[in-house]
Design brief:
The protein is mainly alpha-helical. It contains five helices and no strands. The chain is 82% helix and 0% strand.
Length: 127
């Protein structure tokens, strides 16, 4: 398959916008998971390096998550206790993950990501 970076700029931009819409929809509809779509889009379709794809996905997901969270809060889907306790784990885990991303080989990062996607799919399908 021809990589997008060899395509015309207009085609590449259109695909990035369509990908962004898909990632935003998934994150808003499911309350998360946009990164699971964003990383392969950046990595495979746009040809970015694995570590850059993961780091960029995090920065892309932040404003999407904030917008989705505001919508959920406005509609009454919010529990402060769960948010506070889970938030502590998310912050600590995010810091540890970012530090590990810097140290691990890109191939290892890709394998861990793939295993996580498969495990999440199996859990959703059967449990």
């Amino acid at each position: 398959m021809e990589k997008l970076f060899t395509m015309k700029k207009g085609v590449k931009n259109a695909i990035m916008i369509a990908g962004g819409l898909t990632v935003g929809f998934a994150n808003g509809f499911f309350g998360g998971g946009g990164g699971m779509l964003c990383v392969p889009l950046l990595d495979k379709a746009l040809g970015e390096k694995t570590k850059i794809s993961h780091a960029t996905a995090m920065l892309i997901i932040l404003p999407i998550s904030i917008a989705s969270a505001v919508t959920y809060v406005v509609n009454g889907y919010f529990d402060l206790r769960i948010t506070l306790f889970t938030g502590i784990g998310v912050i600590v885990g995010g810091i540890i993950g970012a530090l590990l991303l810097k140290k691990l080989d890109s191939g290892v990062v890709g394998i861990i990501f793939a295993l996580l996607m498969v495990a999440a799919g199996i859990k959703q399908a059967f449990f």
